[in-house]
Amino acid sequence: MENTTIPQENALTHYELHKANTRGHANHGWLESYHTFSFANYHNKDRMNFGVLRVLNDDRVNQGMGFGKHPHDNMEIISIPLEGDLEHQDSMGNTTVIKEGDIQVMSAGTGIFHSEYNKNKDQLVKFLQIWIYPNKKNVTPRYDQVTLDLSDRHNKLQQILSPNPEDAGVWIHQDAWFHIGKFDNMHTANYQLNKSGNGVYAFILKGDFTIGGVSLNERDGLGIWDTNSFEITSNSDGAEILLMEVPMQL
């Protein structure tokens, strides 16, 4: 982990680097999970959260296996499928399948139960499980999912989440904005923060990037704060990045 000042033009003022191989790791046979922040049996006092971003789990679930019914409350839970089909059921009466290009959100609020299973018998399912602390407690539980056009993230940042129900993507009870971009080699994009005081956690889904002079590889994470904007540059074809802008104060 780094937390420093970089004396160069367009450099980040403050950042925190989490290399992929420093994440927590759990292998349960049917489930392999990498934890960016403390979760379950992985505890790291220096990796408890990034602002209101509490959990970033990189999960792989074997064929026909999954998470049985379990409870949540007062958390915004986002699932981003990366490969395969994930079947979802919950106590609100929802039964659905999410796949690459879909974004799923649950506002757990006063309490929900749900289960998640690999729908297929012949391939893995890979997805990100993300938890965000809400800015309102004990709300009525809510479920939503959207299917996005993957071509809208080619060489640009596609918004997939915001605080606003009328915006593109899903919405949550928090002043947070998520974007995904998929870039050709050496393509540069600028990210402007939506709210003063927020930070951004960048997670590399595929390939290699440079952000403010920091080199990042697949599954690396970079927390950025005390800035209004920054540039990202792809260093490989098909490089894919997830940007999670969140409040820094719990």
What does this entry show, briefly?
With about 250 residues, the protein is an all-beta fold.
Describe the protein's architecture and organization.
The chain is an all-beta fold and 250 residues long. It has one domain: Jelly Rolls (Sandwich). It is 0% helix and 52% strand. It is built from no helices and 22 strands. It has strands spanning 14-18, 24-27, 31-35, 53-61, 66-72, 76-83, 85-90, 95-99, 102-107, 112-118, 125-132, 142-147, 157-162, 170-171, 177-183, 188-192, 198-206, 209-211, 214-216, 221-225, 229-234, 239-247. The strands form four sheets. It has a seven-stranded mixed sheet with strand order 1-20-17-22-15-13-14, with no helix packed on it. It has a seven-stranded antiparallel sheet with strand order 2-3-4-11-6-9-12, with no helix packed on it. It is globular and about 50 Å long. The two termini are 21 Å apart. It comes from Flavobacterium tiangeerense.
